[in-house]
Amino acid sequence: MKKKLNCILLIDDDYATNLYHKMIIQEANCTHKIIVITCAIEALEYFKSPFDEENPRPNLVFLDINMPKMTGWEFMEEYKHLEYSQKAENIIVMLSTSSHPDDIQKAQDNPLIKEYRGKPLSEEIIHDLVAKYWERIKIQNLV
């Protein structure tokens, strides 16, 4: 019996990047559902909305830094004010092309961000994260 995450959420404004990352996640065969949101403001609304089968609570969130309207950092400032039940099952990974030391340090200093990884996403990164946080991620048995 193989175990899978219930849901992975990608928050990134770049269509091509989302398409590629979705493909990589599908190839990794580690989740039942992949949700893509292209705007951090819409992602906040997603977390504020009731979770259900169509829109499940994400177990793993990949968040971009540089997005229009609201950056990944601004998203995190708002996200920390959400109710515990709206964010409890999330492992947030900052996924960025930035290798600027300030970004890396800022991510390390934020207790809500578990990892800072460089783009592009790879199967190796996904498997590493799932193995590292296995006990912290709510998984379902796949029949």
Write the layout of secondary structure elements.
Blueprint: E1 3-11, H1 15-28, E2 31-37, H2 40-48, E3 60-63, H3 72-79, H4 84-87, E4 91-96, H5 101-109, E5 113-118, H6 123-132, E6 139-141
Parallel strand pairs: 1-2, 1-3, 3-4, 4-5
Antiparallel strand pairs: 1-6
Description:
The chain has 143 residues and is of the alpha/beta class. It has one domain (3-141): Response regulator (Rossmann fold). 38% of the residues lie in helices and 24% in strands. Strands 1, 2, 3, 4, 5 and 6 form a six-stranded mixed beta sheet that branches. The termini are close together. Mean pLDDT is 90; it is low at 138-143.
End-to-end separation: 7 Å
Please indicate the percent range of residues in DSSP E strands (runs of 2 or more): 15-25%
CATH superfamily: Response regulator
Number of helical elements: 6
Summarize the structure.
The protein is an alpha/beta fold and 143 residues long. It has a single domain (3-141), classed as Rossmann fold.
